[in-house]
Structures are given as C-alpha cells and as structure tokens.
Fold this protein.
Amino acid sequence: MQNTPNIPVTSGQLPKRNSRLMRLLLALDLLVITGFAWYVWIHPKVPMEFNGQRALQDVVTQVEFGPRTPGTAAHAQALEYFQAELAAAGWQSEIVTTTSQGQPVENLRAWRGTEQPVILLGAHYDSRLLADKDDLPANRSQAVPGANDGASGVAVLLELARTLPKQAVAVELAFFDAEDNGHLPGWDWILGSRAYAAALTSQPKAVVVVDMIGDADLKIFMEGNSDPQLSAQLWRTATRLGYETTFVPEIKYHVLDDHIPFLEKGLRAVDLIDLDYAYWHTLQDTPDKVSAISLEKVGKTLLAWIAEYGSCLAAENCTAQ
Ligand SMILES: [Zn+2]
C-alpha cells in the first residue's frame, strides 16, 4: 500500500485526484447501467439479422452427419439437430412418421404460437440414395452428401426460425423427408411432401419451398408450375432488395418438387430452385460449393416478403392473397 500525502479537505470539496477518480467511477457505473438496460429491455426486441454464415454452418453440420438417407443414423441425427435448434429459437416441433408409397417417411413440422399458419415454408432434408450423375461410375453407388441439394434449403429455414420477428404472421416450417429418390427402384420423388400435404388440416394462404438455393453462382429463375402471382411478389421483393441478378424474372424450367402436392390441393405454392448446379446428384455436392451470400439473399428475401405479405393482409383491399 502506498501512503497518500495528507491534504487538508474543506467540506464539499474532494482532493483533485480523488474527484477525477470519482468521476471515472461514475462514468463506468453509467456505462454498466446503460449496457444492462439495453440487454434487458431493448436487446430482446431487436430481431437478429439473417446471417448467411450461420446458415452455412447449418449446411456444414448436416453434411458432417453424413448423407441423410432414410433409416440411417445421419437421418436421425439431423432430425434431432433441427428440433434442438428450433426449440432454442422458441419454436415447437413434432416428427410425423408415416409411410408414402410403401416407404417410411419422417416429416418434421414446426410452429410458434396457437394461430393457424398463414404461410408454410418448406424444404426437403433427405439426401439422395445414389449419386447417379457422378462422372465416376464407382461413385454412383454411394449416397449424395447433399450440401446444396437438401441441406441448403433446411439451413435457410433454420436461420429464418432464429430471425423471424415474433409479430410476423403465423408461419409453419415444414422439413420434408424422402424428396430425392425418384427414378430409383421402389421409390418416387416427393414422397415426404405428398404425405405432408395429405395430412395438412390448415389452409395456408401461401406455400414457399426452397431447394438448391445455396449455389455460389445463384440464379433463381421463376419455376413454371409455381403460382404466377406469388412468384411475382417474391421476385418483386428480391428486386427491391437489390437481388435482381439472382432472382431472374423469367421461367426456365418446370420442376417436380415439393410444392406440387400443395398446388394439387388448390393452394398457392412457389418453388425457389436453381437447377443449374454442376454437382447435382454427385459426390461433389459438398459445403464448399455453397455460399453464405446466396443463403443470405434467399433468407432476406423471404423475411422481407413475409413482412410485406403480413402488412398487406392487415390492410384493406389487399390483392396479395
Ligand atoms: Zn436432388
């Protein structure tokens, strides 16, 4: 300890050095109190931004489990991971086990609150049993890692679950099983979403499916079977956000994907998909081909569109439904 010089103190006056110290302590106190107030009262109300890097990590995690083909440990681990992430973000979820065309199907649905869903967002989480488009014949008997084809769509749904504001219109998240085994003996495409749509008791006003939306060179053309009005809304929102080179307002393909069973039910449904992917159904469909920027563009477009759609429904004369 150091001795301090004995300075005479008059009432109401602190020695200069001590007064400076007091001011510093007071400033520190204020800083701590302000920080605490921000954390407790303001921080929970500021929605987290959709983060492409965090979504990309979801892709990496899924691929690390291994191909999510039916009946495998990776398939089960993926479901467990989705449910844990959803719960951490405040969503309830349930696995719906059924069979579709003789094959086992485990769909996962997630929701928040008690309202019926206005919007249903879906992605398939399974990966294809065989990499039958691989250049190397030896690889064609192995399952696809499914980084872009499967994991990218799920990653966008998980990051939306984390970032969708609580006051948004009611959204249901659908994680479809068994989308990707078409043209393989005993299988067909979209078995999971067929079962999901058949069991659906609600009437969402809009269904949006995301599939293969993580490509670094992302170009999402309008899909020919999708609802044109809903497509136009989504592409308008993307353009408003400056993503007009990613969302190309022209139809290029007609795709059999998870939106079809919902269209067949008479619901408005859109498929957001970029089919021009060189690694499609090959062993090269790995996370290094997936871009955080692409995931973020799709996620931010959906977040903005959900907000616009909700505002429109709340207003009179909304033509967006
Ligand atoms: Zn596929």
User: Anything to note?
Assistant: Residues 128, 149, 180, 281 surround zinc ion (CB under 6 Å). The chain has a mean pLDDT of 90.
